[in-house]
C-alpha cells in the first residue's frame, strides 16, 4: 500500500491510525499542502486523486480517496481489530459520531475554507469547532460533547476503539492548534487523553511523520 498524506491533515491522520491499528505496513508519500502553492494541485497528484486532496491510498490494485471510505475498506478487508461494533445500535452511534465530525465540523475549518476567510481564520476556526463541540449556532453543527456523554465508555462508544475515535483525536488536535478553550468539554478531553495513550495513535501522530518539520517533531 501507498499512502499519500500530509503530516497535519486530520483526514490523513484518521487513515494512519486505522492502518496502525490493523497492522498494515505501507509506504508514505508526503504531499505538502502549502509548499509550491500546494503540491496537491500538481498534475502528477491529480492523476492519483482528481479531487486534489489527501489522503489517497493505493491498495490491492485500486486507489481510494476520502478518509471514511478508505477506513471502511480496511475494515472490510482486515476485520481485526474491528472498528465498527457488532451491536447495530452501537454501530449506528459510531457512524453518527464519525459523520458529525467529518461532515459537520472538520470541513468548516479545513485549509481551503481558511484560505477564503483570510486574516480572521483563527477566529473562524475557533467558532466552528466550539459550535460543533458544544452545539451552539449555527444549528447544523453537532452537540458532540452532549452526544458523547450518552455513548462513551472509555472511548467514544463503549470500551472498544472505533471509527469514531479515529475521527475524534485529529479534531481535538485541530481544536488545540486553533487555541479553542477545551474547558467546557470534559468528556472529549477524557476520551482524547485515553486514546493518545494507545500506540497506534502515537505512531500516527503528526509530530512523528516523515514530513513533519523539525521544529514540530516530538
From TrEMBL:
PROSITE patterns: GST_CTER, GST_NTER. Pfam families: GST_C_3 (PF14497), GST_N_2 (PF13409). GO terms for cellular component: mitochondrion. Residues 87-214 form the GST C-terminal domain. Its cofactor is glutathione. Pathway: Amino-acid degradation; L-phenylalanine degradation; acetoacetate and fumarate from L-phenylalanine: step 5/6. It comes from the Eukaryota. InterPro entries: Glutathione-S-Trfase_C-like (IPR010987), Glutathione-S-Trfase_C_sf (IPR036282), Glutathione_S-Trfase (IPR040079), Glutathione_S-Trfase_N (IPR004045), GST_C (IPR004046), GST_Zeta (IPR005955), GST_Zeta_C (IPR034330), GST_Zeta_N (IPR034333). Residues 1-82 form the GST N-terminal domain. Belongs to the GST superfamily. Zeta family. This is Maleylacetoacetate isomerase. It comes from Nestor notabilis.
